[in-house]
Amino acid sequence: MKKVSLLLLLAVSTLSFQGCGNKTKESSDSVENAEHANDAKEDAGTGQTDDTNEFAVKAANGGMLEVTLGRLAQEKAMNKDVKEFGAMMVTDHSKANDELKALATSKNITLPTALGEDEQKHVNELTKLSGADFDKKYVSMMVDDHKEDIDLFKKAADDSKTDTDVKSFAVKTLPTLQKHLEHITALDKKIN
């Protein structure tokens, strides 16, 4: 009886340790990893609020997407205006990304180091297209993306729970995003 109990205890212990091991395994999604790191910092009292962290992670992920797709547009777009818009995305969003990285470092916020899985799907989808098909899809995607970005930045700018410096970054960046939306909306009407 002692052997059976001992074997049963050993089996349960082994399964318990395996279960624990799976919880500590990092996700392959950089956005999820950043969110988990920020949650841990907040729980430890060394991080920012959920609102601030969520904005910073989403803004960084969106900014990386804009730069990646902008480079792709410079390579693959057929329309000269689409290529130029892609170049503007690389320039403007690289600058904003650098500012956000510096701000995140000073505020102890972990940002994603690579595109999230959903954003990578957009890149993969556009990579398969070329010519006018690429131009139309890219422009349409940029219209939708900039509308979402503006909503995200307005929310952060108006949220009393967002860190003051992060809020200032959102307020400062909003006019550029609005300019991008106006530009891409006009371009969308022209080519679609």
Describe the structure.
There is one protein chain. With 192 residues, this protein is mainly α. It has one domain (26-191): Ferritin, core subunit, four-helix bundle (Ferritin, Up-down Bundle). The protein is built from seven helices and no strands. α3 packs antiparallel against α6 (131-158). The longest helix is centred in the C-terminal third of the chain and has 28 residues, at 131-158. It is globular.
Mean pLDDT comes to 88
Query: SS-based structural class?
Result: mainly alpha
CATH class equals Mainly Alpha
Taking all Cα atoms into account, the compactness measure Rg is: 22 Å
Biggest beta sheet summary: none
Level-2 CATH architecture: Up-down Bundle
Secondary structure: number of strands: 0
Helical residues, percent: over 70%
Give the termini separation.
78 Å
**Low-confidence parts lasting 5 or more residues at pLDDT below 50?**
1-25
Compact summary:
It contains seven helices and no strands. The chain has 192 residues and is mainly alpha-helical.
Name its key features.
7 helices; disordered N terminus; mainly alpha; Ferritin; 0% strand; 192 residues
SSE diagram, text form:
Elements: H1 2-24, H2 30-44, H3 50-76, H4 80-106, H5 117-127, H6 131-158, H7 164-191
Helix pairs in contact: 2-3, 3-4, 3-5, 3-6, 4-7, 6-7
